[in-house]
Specification:
mainly alpha
Length: about 110
């Protein structure tokens, strides 16, 4: 990376920090750290313990939806947990399909 300015290196590190996932990435506008800091404390804590990277905006959307329906914080966090489990299952299925295709080619 000799001769590369700090900005491209920082961008490369950000791209590598998204986790290995077969799911498509989505580009987001705005400041993700500011979005994270604006979340309720219990939701920020849940995000720090999550198995996969979540966007603060998607969590905030689920949070607002659940709270507007009268759900407790615990209920909304449980909904997020279930959503995460579904996402992990989807990732596992996609990875299994990829491995099967690779075996068929071999």
């Amino acid at each position: 990376m000799k001769g590369t300015s700090p900005a491209p290196r920082a961008a490369m590190r950000r791209n590598q920090n998204a986790g290995a996932t077969p799911l498509p990435r989505r580009s987001r506008a705005g400041d993700p750290m500011q979005d994270f800091d604006a979340l309720p404390a219990s939701l920020r804590h849940w995000l720090t313990q999550a198995a996969r990277p979540w966007s603060a905006r998607s969590c905030r959307k689920i949070w607002i939806d659940g709270r507007s329906r009268g759900e407790s914080e615990a209920d909304v966090l449980e909904r997020l947990r279930r959503s995460e489990v579904k996402t992990l299952q989807k990732e596992a299925q996609l990875e299994a399909q990829r491995l099967r295709k690779n075996l068929e080619r071999a």
